[in-house]
Design brief:
Blueprint: H1 2-20, E1 26-36, E2 39-45, E3 48-53, E4 71-78, E5 87-89, H2 90-107, E6 112-120, E7 123-127, E8 132-136, E9 155-164, E10 169-173, H3 175-192, E11 198-206, E12 210-214, E13 219-223, E14 244-253, E15 258-262, H4 274-277, E16 283-292, E17 295-301, E18 304-309, E19 331-340, E20 345-349, H5 357-364, E21 370-379, E22 382-387, E23 391-396, H6 406-409, E24 418-427, E25 432-436, H7 444-448, E26 457-466, E27 469-474, E28 477-482, E29 503-512, E30 517-521, H8 522-537, H9 546-558
Parallel strand pairs: 13-15, 18-20, 23-25
Antiparallel strand pairs: 1-2, 1-4, 2-3, 4-5, 6-7, 6-9, 7-8, 9-10, 11-12, 11-14, 12-13, 14-15, 16-17, 16-19, 17-18, 19-20, 21-22, 21-24, 22-23, 24-25, 26-27, 26-29, 27-28, 29-30
Length: about 550
Amino acid sequence: MAMTSMEEFEALLNESFEMDTPTEGSVVKGKVIAIEAGQAIIDVGYKMEGRVELKEFANPGEAPEIAVGDEVEVYLRAAENARGEAVISREMARREEAWDRLEKAYADEQRVDGAIFGRVKGGFTVDLGGAVAFLPGSQVDVRPVRDAGPLMGLKQPFQILKMDRRRGNIVVSRRAILEESRAEQRAEVIGKLAEGDAVEGVVKNITEYGAFVDLGGVDGLLHVTDMAWRRVNHPSEILSIGETVKVQVIKINKDTHRISLGMKQLQEDPWDLVAAKYPLESVHKGRVTNITDYGAFVELEPGVEGLVHVSEMSWTKKNVHPGKIVSTSQEVDVMVLEIDAGKRRVSLGLKQTMRNPWEVFSETHPEGTQVEGEVKNITEFGLFIGLPGEIDGMVHLSDLSWDERGEDAIQNYRKGDMVSAVVSEVDVEKERISLSIKALGGDKFAEATGGVKRGSIVTVEVTAIEDGGIEVEYEGMKSFIRRSDLSRDRAEQRPERFSVGDKVDVRVTNVDSKTRRLGLSIKAREIAEEKEAVEQYGSSDSGASLGDILGAALKGGDE
């Protein structure tokens, strides 16, 4: 019995020792009994005291709050050191306490307070009330932060992204909090906005395609095409960062929270008055704003632009790039050709403000007028001659010479030669001018054969004797009489009976103005004379011979 009592007493004694003597490596309660030299002296029981630096009692971004008599929890690292004091740490106690708190917050997806206190590779260190967490650089703010100085030591909320107590790792984000608050703020601002509202905002950022305007916590995009009715090449032409502008809410996307804004919608649409201000065929001054391969855009007034198609730019310059006819910012006169109010398009003409050069030429150079110009081009069918008004006239091969074939005559000309010609035809509609070089001296054939008709008897001079016939000349025009046409009598059809210089009467059998040839025949003249004599003096059938008849005719002529 006594034995049992001793065992019980020993167990009770050990239990009291365990209760009164804290275990090393655990969090214990203590009482602040003094504050001196920047340290708090804490009684942790069982006649053990320890010291803790006051800064360990400070919350992130705040001053330490500690006073004598305060009860605090500390971490007992060792029961006794060389000075006989307990080795305690408030920071380590806070860490254990913090991990418990943070694990609960992480599980509940709640925010935690902390302060950024240091910079490390790839980010920053954050004190979460005793536990140290890593804040990646990408998680500091919504936009990249160049200087994190103002954020240091500042108490603020963070979101725990992941944590591992065994490894002592915690990763937090400040950006997630900002995005969440921005989303709440955006939802609140967007909830107050309606499409069509006119609001004020501040230009926050300018890009190639537009500007972002802050409407008080939410950004809207003001596209470059909605800034003004006129053409805006770059938003910086009319806006600057920090400027306050009045805009209209054009569209709100409730799902993406995107807001489209417009400035021109608050101004009068110049297109409402276009039809009245710019009647068809009226001429106006405009400024070239843009040049493309297919034409040039001309601004008639801010917000009203028309297109001069390449085909309406010049009477004479065909297949030329518009940039070679006009230049950007040039002032030009244009004519209104067509208006499509629905498509907001105006078709303009540049050449219509100038007279048609073919029309002018036809008025100033009627057919038969002599002109002079430079050979601009030589083709297989003729010459192109430069004429007044930057237009060309064409001399066809057949109009080069009376005497030479066109293919031979064209060999006498070179590009750049100055030549004279006569206007033979002007076709304004087809923009074509026909010229003739051979007509310069007049039409010698027409002049020579003016009174000559088929059946006429003319006198010619023999100029050459050939085997096939004789060459003769009439008024400077050469012709050839074939052997078979030299006489009615076959025996007399010998070219050699004629001599150069002989004068011979011949009958005209054909006048060909196209080939510029006279058809001549001695035989035809003789037959015609015989026929005439027979008609006058009787028929050969009456017994009279041809010689008798001709003799009588000749005798009658002598009387």
